[in-house]
Amino acid sequence: FFYRRAHDGFARARRTAGATSSPSSRFARSCGRGARRSAALCANSGRAFSVGLRAGGVSMCAMATWRAPVAGARWCQVELCDRRRECARVGRRGARVMAHKASFEPARGARGEASRTQSVSVDVIGPLGRVLRDLTLDVSGVRREWTILRCGEAMLRVRNDGRVELRRAGALVGAARCALPLDIDANSGVVSARGDDEVVVSWGSRVTLVVRATRSLKNGEAFADLDDGFALDFSMDDWQYGHTTAEIVVELAPSGNWFGGAHQMRSHWPLENGCWEIGPQMPFDNGPNGLNTLVSTHWVTSKGVAVVADPDTPYFHVGLNAPKATWFDGFMSKRTFGVGIQNATRQILPFHAREREGDGLLRLQARNSFRKGYGPFSMNHPLVGWVSPKHINATRRHMRVALCANANVKVATMNVLRTLPKPSSAPPKEVFRAPIWTTWAKMKTNVSQRKVLDFAQEIQDNGMVGSVIEIDDKWQSNYGDLEFDLKKFPNPTAMVDKLHEMGFKVTLWVMPFIAEDTNAYRDGKDKGYFVDSNARTGFFKWWQSPPVVALDVTNPEAVKWFCDNLRSLQERHGIDGFKFDAGEPCFLPRRFVTHMPLGHPAEYTRAWVNNVASQFELAEVRSGHNSTGNASLVRMGDRFSEWGIENGLGSLIPTLLTSGVMGYPFCLPDIIGGNAYFGKHPDGELMVRWAQANALMPAMQFSLTPWTSGVVAKEMTAAALKMRDQFVDSLIHFSEQAALSLEPICRPLWWLDPEDSETFMIADQFAIGEDVIVAPVVCQGASHRAVYLTAGEWRDITDPDVVYQGGRWIEDFSAPLGKLPIFVRNRA
């Protein structure tokens, strides 16, 4: 028992801190003939080692620690404790371990600090006080070297065991380490410097860490445009017959609060409020660990740290504050991707940190495959078993990450955003000036020409305005044919003309899916226009029926064929644009094959957005991955008609703010009031509060009609729209600025004062530019709320005579159902 426990302890400590000596030979020699070695001697952070032995029939497993010596000292004090930290008592039979002074020989490395402890003299005392053995524990070889790199105002300390510390102005702002294989001695790392801007740590030829200051990178290299940063390339040999993972682990606590990364079904702001389970980092429609349709590969923190991962990392997996497994998780946490009605009973993830204990880490992994895994938090999804053609013959796995230490969180965010692709323009102004009206939540698939025209007339009869009528699912004769169903739409041209006369532009819902019994499938199947599969036919299930194939958006001919069909619709019927739905790789067939080889499945999403949607001026998409250069509106995933952060109203502001941090400023919140899925419809209060929360966001979208919820809901929704009219020119102005810089239109409160720690946790307010703070009510039944105002003087837009001093909370601010709290900066 002791042998197994101590051997496990040796493996764990070796991975985290590194072994100081061989667990077999040295300890056996030092114990001598009367005591038998049964475990390991290993170091922990340079200050502790564990020892398990059996001497004189007494079993012991202890932890020894030595105190740091004072300057010039030649010895240090050693103390051994059992696992319960009870000093001087080890084992059931009352054996004691007596520690003596140990010799200590300081040593200094050429580039940084180093220490070496030669030996520790320990007596093992039996129950009757008899000295069972006088042991000399050889701990020579405990050596840790710090090598320092600088880039601008940032400093990175690199240690020979794979740990790094990120500092700015002398203060620690970040800490990370490379996760070494269990059989590698961390302290065997050899450090070599290549000039002033590069350091290499090697553990033989098998594992290597290369660290370079970003200022030394050449134009075109990943991370070259980042300021005050360092590029880490951690790589290891790929064992093709097993699971290989190159992993960089970043500690959350030293860097403060965390933002960015991805849209999530349960929206946490900041991210460490949740427990994001380790899973594939790609767009999902309600993914197995809670990831949703919009994904990035960078994070920023309240202390000004930016963590940027290579977006093309093969088999990229991420976890942030992942929950620690319990015995219950072994039975109940098997994660599986589902579609449609399957999602009705699924747990909405990620967990809240109040519910589970997280590991306090950001884990960035370059794996050598997508695997389901075993035990708690296994991830089963359609990409399991898929092999990247680009990396099938790879002999090493690389995890490339940049760590930047910037002045504050705002600077860190802009440091990343300025390196991302920029759109050529903002979306058309019409979609900012008036709401979009979609048929989806109101009609689902029961659309027709008569219903669409009646819907438009109903909107106008109730005094509402609109910019676009979007005709959603089942307008086509068959999925993928891109032709109107003439039974439901006998004269689509006349319908579009009438909608134009009423002041609406018209868009159609399209997706990259084609059913088998269609002219489109028969036309394209022999031309290679559809994604194929090595395991089965290319058909797969999605949220509707029948099964479909996916357009191969990596094939230029297929893209041209598809876009030509869309333009034909525009020319023949006067269609103004399209809603480009789906695009997430989770819908592709298992072991899919594309025309152009993909390094990562998320490249499919990128191609759907960049190759198809970007060709149309009036467009909306819902998925994205490194596709910030597209001028389309980027819609949030389908919301539920509920109140909480579990994909309801409470998720709206965190998701909006996350969009901005990730580089997608043209955010289109989903349908006001939600989608009425699973028989849940919004009541009047939810409808009004949703409209108010959405009123000053970049764009608005209705489907469920406010007047259906009563006269009060109708009037208060109309009042919210009038309130928007006062700020719409500002929204358009900031959208044009966003096209140049990706600076968010709607901003976190820390954007106004990035040094104010009160702003970092606020998930239910946002700012427009620098002079407007919006504080919607997002809690059911609430008529008051606490409002935080940043430094300066502010006025309530409905009571301008009262001036509020910023930098503090306004407790219990009155916000009855008809009121949307908006504060403008007092410039007088």
Task: Walk me through the structure.
The protein is globular, with a radius of gyration of 30 Å. Helix 7 packs parallel to helix 8 (492-501) and helix 13 (684-695) packs parallel to helix 14 (711-725). By secondary structure, it is α+β, with helices and mostly antiparallel strands. The strands form 11 sheets. It has a 9-stranded antiparallel sheet, with no helix packed on it. Strands 16, 17, 18, 19, 21, 23, 24, 30 and 40 form a 9-stranded mixed sheet that branches.
State the helical fraction: 10-25%
Would you report the number of β strands? 51
Q: What class would the helix/strand composition place it in?
A: alpha+beta
Backbone shape: globular
Give descriptors for this structure:
828 residues; 9-stranded antiparallel beta sheet; 15 helices; 51 strands; disordered N terminus
In short:
Helices cover 18% and strands 30% of the residues.
Protein topology:
Blueprint (H helix, E strand, L loop, with lengths): L1 H15 L8 H7 L3 E3 L4 E3 L3 E8 L2 E9 L8 E8 L13 E4 L1 E3 L1 E2 L8 E2 L2 E7 L5 E8 L7 E6 L2 E6 L3 E6 L2 E9 L10 E4 L4 E6 L3 E7 L15 E9 L7 E7 L6 E7 L9 E7 L10 E11 L3 E5 L6 E5 L8 H4 L2 E2 L14 E2 L8 E7 L11 E2 L15 E10 L3 H9 L12 H4 L2 E3 L1 H4 L5 H13 L6 E4 L20 H10 L3 E6 L2 E3 L3 H6 L7 E2 L14 E3 L5 H18 L3 E4 L11 E2 L8 H11 L6 E3 L2 E2 L7 E3 L16 H11 L4 E2 L15 H12 L5 E2 L8 H15 L2 H14 L4 E2 L18 E3 L3 E3 L9 E6 L3 E4 L2 E7 L2 E7 L7 E4 L3
Parallel strand pairs: 23-40, 26-29, 31-32, 31-43, 32-33, 33-37, 37-39, 39-41, 41-42
Antiparallel strand pairs: 1-3, 2-3, 3-4, 4-5, 5-7, 6-10, 8-9, 10-11, 12-13, 13-14, 14-15, 15-20, 16-17, 17-18, 18-19, 19-30, 20-28, 21-23, 22-25, 22-27, 23-24, 24-30, 25-28, 34-36, 35-38, 44-45, 45-46, 46-51, 47-50, 48-49, 48-51
Helix pairs in contact: 7-8, 13-14
